[in-house]
UniProtKB/TrEMBL annotation:
This is DNA phosphorothioation-associated protein 4. InterPro entries: DNA_S_mod_dnd_assoc_4 (IPR023983). It comes from Rippkaea orientalis (strain PCC 8801 / RF-1).
Length: 154
């Protein structure tokens, strides 16, 4: 059985490289696998999948073994079962199901990278912006449609 690889869309390759902290860079992630896992989670949060058209040569497709060694295999399986509602997608004995899980993960990651690109547009420090995004996600929606009442400070 061939080992599947997680591919990156060519139009998102520069963003993925910029998000990795290599050679003294300021990226918030240590590896390409970390970037793809975060992007897939973000794509799933947005309930959006985007198929890959042209595949990037650099960064090269990432071996599924790297994702397994970093503990992301659970994320890949969770996204697949949540997307298909079919427990058979988790079968370890069928090559087609593994390929389908990889495709689902890639498409969520591609959508997440698309959304991240919009969120990070014009940002100098990607780490700071991503931390801000996560902080805003964690806080309850206290900035609803209500107006801010200054009278309580009088």
């Amino acid at each position: 059985m061939a080992i599947n690889r997680i591919r990156i869309a060519k139009d998102k390759a520069d963003l993925v490289k910029a998000l990795v902290d290599d050679s003294g860079g300021k990226g918030p992630f240590q590896t390409y696998a970390d970037v793809m896992a975060f992007a897939a989670s973000y794509g799933a949060k947005c309930k959006k999948r985007v198929p890959l058209n042209v595949i990037a040569k650099e960064p090269a497709p990432i071996s599924l073994e790297i994702f397994i060694s970093r503990g992301y295999d659970s994320l890949i399986k969770l996204l697949a079962i949540a997307d298909t509602n079919d427990p058979k997608i988790l079968s370890a004995y069928e090559a087609e199901t593994e390929a389908k899980r990889v495709t689902i993960f890639e498409e969520y990651a591609n959508a997440g990278l698309e959304n991240l690109r919009e969120e990070l547009r014009g940002t100098v420090d990607y780490t700071e912006r991503i931390v801000l995004m996560l902080s805003l996600e964690k806080l309850p929606n206290s900035c609803g449609d209500e107006e801010f009442d200054l009278s309580r400070f009088l």
